[in-house]
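We modelled the chain as a single entity of 292 amino acids. Its sequence is:
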Amino acid sequence: MASSSLYIDAPAKVNWHLQVVGRRSDGFHELLSCFVALDLCDRVIAEVMPGAPKSCIQLLSASPHGKHFPLDPSNLIMRAEKIWRESGGVAPPIAWSVEKNIPAQAGLGGASSDAAAALMLLQDHASHRLPDSAIDHIASLLGADVPFFLQSNSPALMAGRGDIFVSDIKLPAQWLVLAIPEFRIGTPEVFAELNAPDFTGAQVIEAKVRANPGPNQLFEPALAVEPLLNEFAAQLSQIANFCMSGSGSTMFAAFSEQDKANDCALSVNHLCKNVIVSQVIPGPVLSAAKSF
């Protein structure tokens, strides 16, 4: 029987590269993207509350990036639990606690990673678990990034909306400098700026994954949405080869040595308040739940 209190460290991700293949008939865009998990993690804690009327969620006081973290049903953890229960999963009410270390709304996948961790923790606390196929379906309903965090390969080439695993990707060991500006860029607004051709399903596209990050074909649309990004990216380019993750606003540069990454971070500090050095983690994205 599972411990009454379990936790999972839910990692951030960057999009090492991102290609837009075309606009689909369902209104979404077909993408090819290399997802890379990082050792920058939120900690998601699930404690069972037998007899409680319903689940609840709180942000731990130690969390440095809780500013945009909702404590209501809109939280992706709470949405994951709601759909999991509606799909037939059975578990006692859960007291969720989150130590938020991944900046929100920055293209780093923190909310999606938290939701994937929540699904795993619900399964561990369940008296009636759901089959893997149902978990995969719930993940796709929650968002395009969530399925990546539930599969066992990183780095990984993902297709569809970013939710379909294609293959493992081999990259050299890397340290990343994440430069995260104060401004945020809305993902729907970025995709609205795309002028992509129709995707028929017949296109043959070669994934342009390289040892260095890029390209990201959402960068130009993001510039149209947020003009501040242009100056920010230009300033960063004077220091190192920075690439945007996802639809922004985080920019990142890769280094083979930690010392060089640390030196770069010091050089970037004057451009934005939030600069993080993080390491690429190969292998399984989410580790098994642990008990306190």
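As a brief sanity check on the tokenised model: Residues 1-292 form a domain with the Ribosomal Protein S5; domain 2 fold (CATH 3.30.230.10). The helical segments are 76-86, 110-125, 132-142, 146-150, 187-192, 219-225, 228-237, 258-268.
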